[in-house]
Amino acid sequence: MLRLIREGGDWRTLSAELFDGKGSWGNGAAMRVAPLGAWFADDVAQVIQQAALSAQVTHTHPEAVAGAIAVAVAAATAVTEPDLPPGRFLDRISENVPASMVRDGIAEARQLLTIGDSALAARMLGNGRQVSAHDTVPFTLWVTARERHDFEAAMWTTAAAGGDVDTTCAIVGGIVAASGSTRVPSEWIRQCEPLPDWAGVPPLERESDAPGGSPPQR
């Protein structure tokens, strides 16, 4: 797709033509959208609109769009209502997600909140092995509903379920970091490779825990 765009193709047409004209229902849009949800956290209508627009650049299938909306609303809710109980947290997300298998999965995730075993929850909700939003996003929201105030616990809970771990951890990490209520372990920060000079960002904190993330200041 990128090659075709470089050759003059219109990304709107190319994205919609993927997978025999159905568009991708994968997780790329959901993986990258949490910061957007945090940025527009004070306006849920904007969260929904911008999440949908950001998804359609690469993932036009309705399930992928629904997954992006769900993650963006989750990040926004983590910012604006950090103390919601897990069930209400998932309710708030479901209220804003269009009818879809993703939304059905979130409803199932709510019913599974009493389960403490992430591997069991993943067997019922999916863990990304099918590379689809509806097989991935509900499980990540199950994790964040339970663990969004503890970054390390959220990451280990997600990873323990196996599957497409880089995808599920990216989604969970984005939502949990948006809340600003937890920190990345300092040892994890120390293990990170430094960003290149051309990135123009300050070095990562090394001596103390770095914030897991906070709402951007506008």
Automatic annotation (TrEMBL):
<dbReference type="InterPro" id="IPR050792">
    <property type="entry name" value="ADP-ribosylglycohydrolase"/>
</dbReference>
<dbReference type="InterPro" id="IPR036705">
    <property type="entry name" value="Ribosyl_crysJ1_sf"/>
</dbReference>
<dbReference type="Pfam" id="PF03747">
    <property type="entry name" value="ADP_ribosyl_GH"/>
</dbReference>
<dbReference type="GO" id="GO:0016787">
    <property type="term" value="F:hydrolase activity"/>
</dbReference>
<dbReference type="InterPro" id="IPR005502">
    <property type="entry name" value="Ribosyl_crysJ1"/>
</dbReference>
<keyword id="KW-0460">Magnesium</keyword>
<keyword id="KW-0378">Hydrolase</keyword>
<dbReference type="GO" id="GO:0046872">
    <property type="term" value="F:metal ion binding"/>
</dbReference>
<feature type="binding site">
    <location>
        <position position="167"/>
    </location>
    <ligand>
        <name>Mg(2+)</name>
    </ligand>
</feature>
<keyword id="KW-0479">Metal-binding</keyword>
<feature type="binding site">
    <location>
        <position position="166"/>
    </location>
    <ligand>
        <name>Mg(2+)</name>
    </ligand>
</feature>
<feature type="binding site">
    <location>
        <position position="164"/>
    </location>
    <ligand>
        <name>Mg(2+)</name>
    </ligand>
</feature>
<feature type="region of interest" description="Disordered">
    <location>
        <begin position="196"/>
        <end position="218"/>
    </location>
</feature>
<protein>
    <submittedName>
        <fullName>ADP-ribosylglycohydrolase</fullName>
    </submittedName>
</protein>
